[in-house]
């Protein structure tokens, strides 16, 4: 505004001076018109009253001072530029371009239209046996490692996209799940929410495996089949384990819900053990060292139930694992007890750091009706004689590929009367069955899990959220 005022005054003075010169010229000439004399006096009077700017040089100096002010000091134009800057910041991947609804309905890709999704928690690589600690810390500043980081940005963005869909889904579900709901109701709400957020698109984007909602002594691999009327109760300890993926880049992440506070020490012990496993992980870390760290923390916790004290035991025959494209178990096993393999973790590997604690024996076995299935990743061509088996395999290949699925999902894909065909595929080794895994009846189990990425420069806990 100041600049405008200065410029207007300078122009006005120039006009007035020109008019005065014109009037003087007329006076000095032949004409002595009274009207013109009146005009002359009026102009002179205005010039004497409005004299804050004496000449063009002063006006120019004032204008230069105003123009030299920062945009933030200029109320009008600056406000518009600030708004533009804020809008651009949202498009840079540092924040969503618009707010999510409640319940969440907007796909993550629309919230981050530039394709830059939020990073997970950044940590240093854990200490490794035989590796100098200084070497691990230098990865952060190494230009060579940073260059390797930049080469894989497309992969990193895909997995972060899947992670953000997982985060927003579970944060909504943690508040939504209540005792009295059926397990089918819970799974269908979670899966429909996750499908919307991930932008389900065949094998390009979707759910990575069926929603696990194992209760109490059942630790893993339970999801309700059609007709299952099981109801979630107040005294249940339920493990919610589900996965999302973009182009086969899988997020495998789980948490435990309990409504009765008496189970809090069990849940806390398993969660802290998971954090210990994450901390011990990193490039060059030995898998056995991760397992030892998990066991040490978990067994330091105990829980009192009905007057009896139970030590929280790691379930020794359940493990974390490496993750590959379209492959939930990619070959490496991360134990949760000491004495495992001395194999080392490597750069650009993905791992599910997954821990289970129990008040029972600390060992699980197959039990109950099977619901989880997955095509054998390494199985070569197998001739099939039954036409129904061929049709079912085509349905599996089209909808799931080598990702895990359940009977509910087969039915959603249009499969009918598939029981015999599914058994045939399992008998021939084309498809593997994964029944529910249970400890002794009457005990309680808990689970926590995060997906981590071992970048060349750092360790990224991709699935980390405000909830856990």
Describe this structure in words.
With 468 residues, the protein is an alpha+beta fold. The chain is 41% helix and 19% strand. The protein is built from 14 helices and 18 strands. The chain has helices at 2-28, 34-49, 56-67, 75-94, 108-111, 133-138, 143-151, 153-176, 183-198, 264-280, 287-298, 387-399, 407-412, 419-427; strands at 121-123, 205-215, 218-220, 237-246, 249-258, 302-305, 308-311, 313-314, 320-323, 333-334, 350-358, 365-366, 372-375, 405-406, 431-434, 437-438, 445-454, 459-461. The strands form five sheets. Strands 1, 8, 9, 10, 11, 17 and 18 form a seven-stranded antiparallel beta sheet that branches. Strands 2-4-5 form a three-stranded antiparallel beta sheet. It is globular. The model is unreliable at 1-93 (pLDDT under 50).
What gross morphology would you assign? globular
Number of strands: 18
Provide mean pLDDT, rounded.
84
Strand content: 15-25%
Q: Which percent bin holds the helix content?
A: 40-55%
How is the biggest beta sheet arranged? 7 strands, antiparallel
Head-to-tail CA distance between termini:
52 Å
Stretches with pLDDT under 50, minimum 5 residues: 1-93
Number of helical segments with 4 or more residues: 14
Structural class: alpha+beta
Query: How many whole angstroms does the radius of gyration measure?
Result: 35 Å
């Amino acid at each position: 505004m100041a600049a405008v005022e200065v410029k207007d005054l300078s122009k006005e003075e120039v006009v007035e001076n020109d008019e005065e010169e014109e009037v003087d010229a007329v006076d000095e000439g032949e004409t002595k018109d009274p009207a013109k004399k009146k005009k002359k006096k009026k102009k002179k009077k205005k010039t004497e009253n409005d004299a804050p700017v004496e000449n063009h040089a002063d006006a120019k100096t004032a204008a230069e001072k105003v123009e030299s002010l920062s945009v933030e000091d200029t109320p009008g134009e600056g406000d518009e530029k600030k708004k533009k800057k804020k809008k651009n910041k949202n498009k840079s991947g540092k924040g969503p371009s618009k707010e999510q609804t409640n319940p969440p309905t907007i796909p993550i890709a629309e919230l981050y239209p530039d394709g830059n999704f939020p990073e997970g928690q950044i940590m240093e690589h854990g200490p490794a046996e035989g590796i100098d600690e200084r070497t691990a810390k230098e990865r952060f500043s190494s230009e060579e490692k940073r260059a390797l980081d930049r080469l894989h940005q497309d992969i990193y963005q895909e997995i972060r996209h899947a992670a953000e869909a997982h985060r927003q889904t579970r944060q909504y579900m943690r508040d939504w799940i209540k005792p009295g709901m059926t397990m089918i109701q819970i799974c269908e709400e979670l899966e429909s929410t996750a499908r919307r957020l991930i932008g389900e698109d065949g094998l390009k984007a979707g759910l990575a495996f069926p929603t696990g909602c194992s209760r109490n002594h059942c630790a893993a691999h339970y999801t309700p089949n059609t007709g299952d009327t099981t109801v979630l109760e107040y005294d249940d300890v339920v493990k919610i384990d589900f996965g999302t993926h973009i182009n086969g880049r899988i997020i495998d992440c789980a948490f435990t819900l309990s409504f009765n506070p008496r189970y809090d020490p069990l849940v806390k012990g398993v969660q802290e053990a998971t954090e210990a496993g994450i901390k011990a992980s990193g490039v060059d870390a030995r898998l056995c060292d991760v397992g030892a760290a998990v066991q040490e923390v978990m067994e330091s916790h105990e829980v009192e139930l009905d007057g009896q004290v139970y030590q929280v035991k790691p379930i020794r025959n359940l493990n974390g694992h490496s993750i590959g494209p379209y492959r939930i178990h990619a070959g490496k096993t991360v134990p949760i007890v000491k004495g495992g393999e001395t194999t080392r973790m490597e750069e650009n590997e993905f791992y599910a750091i997954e821990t289970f604690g129990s008040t029972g024996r600390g060992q699980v076995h197959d039990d109950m009706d099977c619901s989880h299935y997955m095509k054998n990743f390494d199985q070569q061509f197998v001739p099939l004689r039954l036409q129904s088996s061929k049709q079912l395999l085509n349905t599996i290949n089209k909808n799931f590929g080598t990702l895990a699925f359940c009977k509910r999902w087969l039915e959603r894909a249009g499969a009918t009367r598939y029981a015999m065909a599914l058994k045939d595929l399992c008998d021939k080794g084309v498809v593997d069955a994964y029944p529910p895994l249970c400890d002794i009846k009457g005990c309680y189990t808990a689970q926590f899990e995060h997906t981590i990425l071992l970048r060349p420069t750092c360790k990224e806990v991709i699935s980390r959220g405000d909830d856990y």
